[in-house]
């Protein structure tokens, strides 16, 4: 309340419960359970940028600056008529948010619409923005300070604040949207690999779902990711949970593969690339091959309903900024 994010309310229209979520370090973060309210809210279909395309755009940049907005959603005020709908109850009374709270259905889309509008002159040229994550990028170091000044002037104009603890300025590489980006190329965040390597064999369906979810975030770096995880997908649909020998073997193979993931690099301009398509019962796989280095990266797409030649079109579009 002292920060101006909430205020007391006497006649709320909706009431949600408070939930305490444990964080690293033993602390707890107060969240509001907006699930019922979210069900009643119409969906804001404003698109979010594709993470893979944003990350690809950083390849080959000599200087990078990563920034994170300070409590980003709380910097956007709610309309007066909507505040009574984002109310919550505590032991000391009922309160409502005056700024956009975390956990609200359309918070991401609303914030993305804002940053797309205010940073339109810079997006794609020297910055990339995904909701409250911002990155300034430059092929030449000498241009970096000027581009930072341009961005800061926009932040000041619209009174948006940054979290200094989550900012890194003029670095050669760092973590952006969960991936490690450098001038050399793109790497998996080691912490994401460690989480999978430290996992024990699942003992129930929920743990299998947790495993497949973590693997899916790394699938871009895994050749034949769907095939390697096939036993896990079948187990999620099985009537009875049984961690068979085949599942254990697939689990160990995944860990072994993840321990040696390679760096994804941008192809040299002018090199000849060949697109290979492979159609099977469950997936359409596409791969780009560099005829000089013979390196291959696999990308898995849903099984097409159109003829294979037509399905090649979205594959080419997806690889507009390919990395191999």
From TrEMBL:
<dbReference type="InterPro" id="IPR043128">
    <property type="entry name" value="Rev_trsase/Diguanyl_cyclase"/>
</dbReference>
<protein>
    <submittedName>
        <fullName>Retrovirus-related Pol polyprotein from transposon</fullName>
    </submittedName>
</protein>
<dbReference type="InterPro" id="IPR043502">
    <property type="entry name" value="DNA/RNA_pol_sf"/>
</dbReference>
<feature type="domain" description="Reverse transcriptase">
    <location>
        <begin position="2"/>
        <end position="181"/>
    </location>
</feature>
<dbReference type="Pfam" id="PF00078">
    <property type="entry name" value="RVT_1"/>
</dbReference>
<dbReference type="InterPro" id="IPR000477">
    <property type="entry name" value="RT_dom"/>
</dbReference>
<dbReference type="InterPro" id="IPR053134">
    <property type="entry name" value="RNA-dir_DNA_polymerase"/>
</dbReference>
């Amino acid at each position: 309340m002292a920060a101006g994010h909430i205020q007391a309310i006497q006649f709320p229209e909706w009431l949600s419960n408070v939930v305490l979520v444990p964080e690293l370090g033993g602390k707890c973060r107060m969240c509001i359970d907006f699930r019922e309210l979210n069900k009643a809210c119409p969906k804001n279909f404003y698109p979010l940028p594709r993470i893979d395309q944003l990350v690809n755009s950083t390849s080959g940049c000599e200087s990078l600056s990563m920034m994170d907005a300070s409590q980003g959603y709380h910097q956007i005020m709610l309309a007066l008529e909507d505040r009574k709908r984002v109310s919550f109850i505590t032991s000391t009374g009922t309160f409502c948010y005056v700024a956009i709270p975390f956990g609200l259905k359309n918070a991401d889309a609303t914030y993305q619409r804002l940053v797309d509008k205010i940073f339109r002159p810079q997006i794609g040229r020297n910055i990339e923005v995904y909701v409250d994550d911002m990155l300034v990028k430059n092929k030449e170091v000498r241009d970096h300070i000027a581009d930072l000044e341009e961005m800061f002037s926009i932040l000041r104009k619209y009174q948006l604040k940054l979290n200094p603890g989550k900012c890194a300025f003029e670095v050669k590489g760092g973590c952006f949207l969960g991936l490690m980006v450098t001038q050399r190329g793109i790497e998996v965040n080691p912490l994401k690999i460690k989480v999978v390597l430290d996992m024990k064999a699942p003992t129930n369906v929920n743990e299998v779902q947790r495993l497949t979810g973590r693997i899916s975030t790394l699938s871009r770096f895994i050749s034949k990711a769907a095939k390697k995880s096939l036993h896990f997908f079948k187990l999620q649909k099985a009537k009875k949970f049984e961690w068979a020998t085949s599942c254990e073997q697939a689990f160990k193979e995944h860990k072994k593969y993840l321990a040696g993931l390679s760096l994804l690099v941008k192809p040299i301009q002018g090199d000849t690339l060949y697109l290979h398509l492979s159609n099977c019962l469950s997936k359409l796989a596409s791969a780009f091959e560099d005829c000089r280095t013979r390196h291959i990266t696999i990308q898995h797409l849903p099984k097409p309903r159109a003829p294979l030649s037509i399905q090649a079109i979205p594959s080419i579009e997806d690889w507009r900024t390919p990395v191999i």
